[in-house]
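CORE FACILITY INTAKE
Project code: CF-77B
Contact: R.S. (postdoc)
Sample description: multi-component assembly, three entities in total
Requested service: structural model of the whole complex
Turnaround: standard
Below are the sequence entries exactly as provided by the requester. Do not edit them.
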Amino acid sequence: MPISQSTRDELQELVARYPRPRSALMPMLHLVQSLEGEVTPEGIALCAEMAGVSSAEATAVASFYTMYKRRPVGKHHIGVCVNTLCGLLGGDAVYDALSERLGVGHDQPTADGEFWLERIECQAACTHAPVMTVDWEFMDDVTPTSAVDVVDRLQRGETVFSTRGPVIRDFRATEKSLAFPEDGLAAEGTPVDDKMLVGLRLAKELGMSAPAVATGQEG
Amino acid sequence: MPLTPVITEHWDDPELFTLAGYRRHGGYSALSSALGQEPDAIIATVKDSGLRGRGGAGFPTGLKWSFVPQNDGKAHYLVVNADESEPGACKDIPIMIANPHALVEGVIITSYAIRANHAFIYIRGEVPEAIRRVAHAVREAREAGLIGRDIQGSGFDLEIVVHSGAGAYICGEETALLDSLEGFRGQPRLKPPFPAVAGLYSSPTVINNVETICNIPYIVGRGVDWFRQFGTEKSPGFKVFAVSGHVNRPGIYEAPLGITMRELLEYAGGMIDGRDVKFWLPGGSSVPMLTAEHLDVPMTYEAMAEAGTMLGTGTPMIFNDTVSVVKAVTRWLEFYKHESCGKCTPCREGTYFITETLERFEHGHGTDREMETLADLCGQIAGRSFCALGDAAATPYPAAMKYFRDEFVAATTTPVDEQYDPAASYVFTGAAAR
Amino acid sequence: MTVTSNSGPGSDVEMATDQISVVIDGVEMRVPKGTLVIRAAEQLGIEVPRFCDHPLLDPVAACRACLIEVEGMPKPQPACAQVLSEGMTVKTQYASEVARLAQEGVMEFLLLNHPLDCPVCDKGGECPLQNQAMSVGRPESRFDGEKREFEKPVNVSAQILLDRERCVSCARCTRFAEQIAGDPSLELLQRGAKQMVGTADDSPFESYYSGNTVQICPVGALTSASYRFRSRPFDLVSVPTTCEHCASGCSLRTDYRRGVVTRRLAWDDPDVNEEWNCDKGRFAFAYQTHGRIESPLVRENGQLRVASWPEAISVAAQGLRAARGSAGVLVGGRLTVEDAYAYARFTRTVLASDDIDFRVRETSAEETQFLSAVVAGSPVSATYDALESAPFVLLIALDPEDESPILQLRLRKAARRGTDVRSVGAVASPGLAKVNGSLIAAKPGDEASVLRGLSGDVRALLATPGSVILVGERAAGSAGALSAAAELSRATGASLAWVPRRAGERGALDAGALSGLLPGGRPIEDPAARVQVAAAWGVTPSDLPATSGRSGVELLQAAQDGTLRALLVAGVEPGDFPDAELALAALDAAPFVVSLESHHSAVTERADVVLPVAVVTEKAGTFLNWEGRPRPFAQVFRDALTMGDARVLAMIAEELGFTQQADVRAIRAEMGALGPWTGARLEAPAVPAGRVPDGVVLASWRQLLDSGLMQDGEPHLAATARPTVAVMSAQAAAAVGDTVTVSGPAGSVTLPVEPGEVIDGVVWLPMNSPGCHIHADLGVVPGSAVRLSAGGAS
């Protein structure tokens, strides 16, 4: 991997973000992953150099966290939550359908380099079970049919929106956002959806609200 | 008990995530009030409010702040634990997506109170949407002079860094989070020293959960009495409950602590197809499961403890009678095995052993003797592992055995998928399921 | 099993005088405040099981094998991390069912994935896991699932092999690498049940101390290529020994089987090497058996032929008798104190000469004076312990990691506690970084000027009580450096220690194997000293040479000139002299050469009589380490037939009508009776600084692992040596490109370039590494001017 000056500048910017260089190691690994869609030995060595640690120390960190991949993920990362709640509510079937559609198993890339399939752990979206992620953007309330449809549309190059977030870009773009999260997409899509509003709407419907002042202080 | 939207009150305003939108609903007024007070006065207010940590352990927040040595001349740090990864917990991520400025305002006030000039928001890496929304809010706040040098002429300086994790449940453990934030493997640290004395970069550090911090602007802005009108003496305040599972209207419901599961279930439209509640967990997979007979236990720290479980993250998961407990427990243990950091023997090897054994039960190959062995193994982890992850991993099996021993007995002869049709538990049907 | 009451991280709290009362298993005891439960229990003879615990590593409480019960605490606590407090009541597995069950549970977990390959595992028989499984484990496993499997073995370096399925993730090896050695190139990778020890994809575990990880591994996960599958521990005989490789003075354990050394281990000596040694000390012993001289040889008709001992002794005696009064003695820096003493006495009595020198390296008259005035016979002052509490340490012409590796480890330990280390030199080496040290820039040859011009700040630091100056043997090559070091010590009160590289140098100095100095640091021209020595040797003072003799180089020149009639040479590799050609010419020109040697060499090839002598395993003896601390060792092979130098010298002496002690114990008694010199010493030298040549100047020292002959026969060790490179500043490196040709009067070498923290106008080369032997290849010494040209063109 030829390291461009702009990459070095960006890594330097990450280092400068923290009181100590080593703290920048994780965002730096996200950044190098955004370059090639994987964390390569060269990428690790570069991060190590910038963080002031040995390659072994950086390797130890890179291998600890599951989001860092040591072989190319391909264009899109597809995650299916198979933890108890999502899995039993249908995530297992969603995973099976995607595995069949893509012809790969857990933590494997498709031969054409388009997709990487992964059984993921709880995505903190249990209210939206079963949950799938595309390049870590939410794809909530999926069914085997809708999940396969998402993959089909991505494969055809169609525009696909996250159910609670921006348009799907690709894995590397998300990795870049994890290093530099001010990606200009905060206003895109409909991140606050019905399920996040269900209680609030119900309260309004039922005329319920939290008192604005302490009891007894009213009037 | 009524629903009481506070943190969620204006989520239906699509502009709430912006500074302008947040301000339109009174945002950052608490900050101005806070900056006019002595830091110690804010600590006292939070102490008096009785606010307890919303991350799961329920430790009194004001007390935690007061452990930080003040005027010690050292750098202090605030670290927000936004690593929400507990199975079943799904309330911090929605808060950060819908109302990120509440978090930012809370961070500024808290940092001011504990005299920290540097705050970090450690968000799990798998949710870019939450990360970008918080980062956006931080940038807006910085541009508006709410973060930076001499905030609003108070002389108080603060930098906030939004940090992306990279996939490790253990980083929700506060000392593992600190190691991770320092660029190490996220393995928990030996205590003492405790973070309040030697945390991030060996400096005094407060680590608080997202929802906890989001309570701060409301407590500071509206007062202790206002806050304490919600909840109970020992569990004051309100809670962002995220109800999931086999209910008709899963989602976010904000209500006072002390509301019951039965009430929440009713708000959530009852069980799908009117089926029976088989088991439910008040707040994450790490708390012992309860059954239909516990639906009237108030959702407070104390009442849940009395019922033999914990409030945890206050994000109930409800399962109906189509679900195999054996399968559910096995899946949770697979999670703990996957997320064990590897540092200590009981957790690293114990989750491996238990999972291997449970998987045999799932396939109908368990034995009576292995049921006893599993109980033993859980006992060999609980209280003996390095951190609470091991304790959590030792929780589901004994809790399940308490109420559903028969299912494990049945799994000594019959695969669970033959006892429980997996498709019956799906929340979609027919064509969608292909 | 590592059991020591010495300072562990938890037990060495500064206020150790604060005693507290605690109760362990019903026994009341008083311990210093801050003591860990596991250490206190050891004092009572209670062995709490442990894997991750090591008294010299920071506690991690990871393995959980040492869980014990503490009264008032709801959960069992790890004894390795639990600090005792006043009144604490602790129950171990012997007194608590909670502790016993907790330990049994952890042991079951540890054995879960551990293979049952003890019969073929090197650790079997000395395995803490095996032992503790027997003592606290369950009799049978309840686990009948699939055990983890890994590719095996994995070479984490050329020397160290890893069998991951045996690993219990105690992290002793990784913590050693990071905390003790400062080489964080061995790490825990992955997580959870997949956690494993490993390295970066593209770089091995690089450490001069890597072998220690094998020794502290509590299972058979780490093994060495040199010992793997060689023997069973219970077939070995162990003998405590002292390392012969350098002047650090490590205590070792030598294990042998059927007359062959199978391995060497670091032995526990809290005062010196603690529980560590370097890889050279651990692995470089094949030389002891390879290339040995089997029998005496005498030259006949120009050819060496095998001779009987009586014949060879007789020939040697006759030749030396003829040269009496005109014979020079060159002994290398690797003799034991006792052997060096024998040469010292033999030279002054049998040969009636003071022409003796132990220095086979660059040297100077200034150094001779410095050693006489400051070092020889001085009591131990600067010690390893003193370094640990020193506020400030100044290094001069010394790179401890390469030249005294255990000194390096203690400096690192000190630095981790706050000792400020600065090095006067031209290169901020990797070793200096590991002691958080910084460079006080001095071109080679310019040390004296820099020392004399040190800032007030540094002088103030040196004046802080407890500060230490460590000066290396290379200072001899820099005019004025030793003078300036002595001046600085005198002016600031900082203690001063001379750190030679070879194991025998300090001992030879104190034994009198240097012209001008009789044993114990006695000046040969001092009447009182002469009386004492003459009495000890049973001669009259007037029998002793009246004036100081010549240095080694002067002797070589004299031999070459034909003015010296004989040379007695022992343990000398001519190539180690900066002017190796002179040394060889001298040997060729000398009318009579007697060589006492263990191995065939360039000296034995030129000798008239060759008398084979013992290596360290075949004799007892003593080394004095750089502190001046005696490091006695026993004879490993009790039935070895090879004689030590002292015994051979005694035979020659006897042939010539002299008597001197042949037996190590008798020599020790004689030396002990004589004792060190307490009279007036010579003045320290006051030599002005020399002139640094124009242009690019060479900095150089010997790397720990290099072309040294005592590393012969160890390919795995050699493969872990640092690559031979030319180090220069980033700017200079950029100017020359990837390779550089460095030229001197005798020739040139072309080497890869490595940018480093080197001061401008200086290039660093290894002194004696494969592809770069600066004396022979370039004809230069440190401080010489060299020419650089880019790439391979010369």
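Facility notes:
- DSSP finds eight helices and five strands in chain A.
- The longest strand of chain A covers residues 76-81.
Invoice: internal transfer
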